[in-house]
Design brief:
single chain, about 325 residues, alpha/beta, Rossmann fold, ten-stranded mixed β-sheet, 12 helices, about 40% helix
């Protein structure tokens, strides 16, 4: 995953392997940061046939956003402008198989491998000591990133994402058994109907689940349905090289887990919360009473406030350490 260079092409930046020219890289960095109000999307290759989609916006302290299995960068569309207005530089990184990122059938889709790819992207962008915000399964990837590369993670806010040990939930694994027949029984129409139901069941206030939101959450899958289904099957069959739980105590940065207080599907289990409380040196549990699994959709202001509290906890921890 070594050294990379960047090539500016119209309104996109394509990052490609190789040392390249320092002048080209400088131009790319200037291009990416030239306006706080403009979002820049580009691809970062991290291995042969493996590229991750990245969207950056704003200036200031970096906030790295990692989406879950559904939603991609689209799921942060309400939150990113709030963060930018608050003075942060947002960096949304879509894991392999998610959003606009690549979907190679033979790749390693373990959560550990996903964390390594996210680290490679941050190294390429020369980003370190970032506030990391992750949703759902992205939280488990972020926990792995925090203990494997503590230099990259200044603090971590996980939205409805516990210390999961598998990339796919049992319910989603059962659904994937019907993957070969999805195209036969309705293709994207069937998928959109199922996703709509999932989003509603996972929400405290489901008024945000509109037709346009459902289209946004399924757009990436619809571009290449075969590749998406094959990537999901690869995720379901992936094996973790090492469990996360024994390494949680190695995460020294402040961690906050934000959960929705409304009854909803996909919540973080009590045992997972207890594990985090027992093992993490610096851990706080936040609750948003009326929200469900997609807090960034239902209460984006609450997430912004959580980021502010997270940053304050880092400042307090540094002050205590200096004393």
């Amino acid at each position: 995953m070594g050294d990379h260079s960047a090539i500016v092409t119209s309104d996109r930046v394509t990052v490609s392997p190789g040392r390249g020219s320092q002048i080209v890289w400088l131009l790319a960095v200037l291009f990416i940061t030239d306006s706080a109000s403009v979002s820049h999307a580009f691809m970062v290759p991290v291995a042969p046939a493996e590229s991750l989609s990245v969207e950056t916006r704003g200036r200031g302290d970096p906030v790295v956003l990692i989406p879950g299995l559904f939603g991609s960068a689209f799921g942060f569309r309400k939150l990113v402008p709030l963060l930018v207005d608050a003075g942060y530089r947002t960096i949304v990184i879509e894991p392999l198989g998610v959003g606009a990122s690549g979907r190679p059938e033979k790749a390693n889709y373990s959560l550990t491998a996903q964390a390594a790819r996210i680290a490679a992207v941050l190294d390429t962008l020369h980003v370190s000591s970032a506030l990391v915000l992750a949703h759902s399964i992205g939280g488990s990837e972020a926990f792995r990133l925090a203990y494997r590369r503590p230099d990259l993670v200044r603090a971590l806010l996980s939205i409805e994402g516990g210390p999961t040990e598998k990339a796919i939930t049992p319910a989603f694994r059962r659904a994937l058994r019907f993957a070969p027949w999805i195209k036969l029984f309705g293709g994207m129409r069937l998928i959109r109907r199922k996703i709509r139901g999932m989003l509603i069941d996972s929400s405290g206030d489901a008024s945000w689940v509109t037709d346009s939101a459902v289209l946004g959450y399924t757009a990436a899958a619809g571009r290449d349905l075969d590749a998406t289904l094959k990537a999901y099957l690869a995720m379901a069959n992936s094996r973790e090289p090492e469990p996360l739980a024994p390494h949680l105590s190695q995460i020294r940065c402040p961690v906050r887990l934000m959960v929705g207080g409304a009854r909803h599907d996909g919540d973080v289990g009590a045992k997972e919360v207890q594990l985090l409380e027992r093992t993490l040196p610096s851990f706080v549990l936040d609750s948003v009473p009326a929200a469900g699994h997609f807090i960034q959709e239902e209460e984006p202001g609450a997430v912004l406030a959580g980021v502010a509290r997270l940053k304050a906890s880092v400042t307090a921890a540094h002050a205590t350490g200096s004393q």
